[in-house]
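Example 3.2
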Amino acid sequence: MRVALTQSRGRLEGLEGALEALGITVVRVPLIETRPRLQPQVRRCGLLLAELPWLLFSSRSAVEAWQVLELPLDGPRLGAVGPVTAAALERAGARVELLGEPASAEGLADRFIAHISGPSAGPVGLPQGSLSSLLLSRLQAAGLRALPLVVYETIPLAWSVDTDVDAVVLASPSAARALPGWVAYRSTLITIGPSTSQAVRARGLVPIEAPVPSGEAILGAIDRLRGDR
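Structure, written as tokens:
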């Protein structure tokens, strides 16, 4: 069995080795690349966002870009989309007060909406990627004032291998959209989170969604898939 891992290195750590231990051939094909936006204007806007009551981080890449821009994390209260993003904030010395449940943009928005009420909450800052929109639209639909700042660009990458694969692991909606059709329609697609699954369904395909966004959950889904063959 051949499984393609499309996330960038450093994501879903340990999954590749665990798959290979099961005798599964792993093909690494990153489908997106993230690049921090280092323009002075972005940093100036980030300093203004850091004065808001809340910042909500929708990805680990947003945290990493925030750090590269040398922006502070010790002022506002912080929310994270899930445990991976929260861990990145904690490694930076920050304290996370709100975690998405489930670990998705929708889960973080719903937790925040339930946690905050009334105009006294003030605007919320959203450090995000160039293709992020779910968290912003969910908060705006609830009548909250949200101020987004694109701190990194999401760059789609070409499929770089010419071999067939049995399954493809997709860790973001951007990766789901970047997957070539000839691969998507000939493979089983395993997704992390409802927003990634939604991007797959928008292409007329039905994914297998891991119950939680972790390498262990993906490994279990692949092992079950292998047993069904």
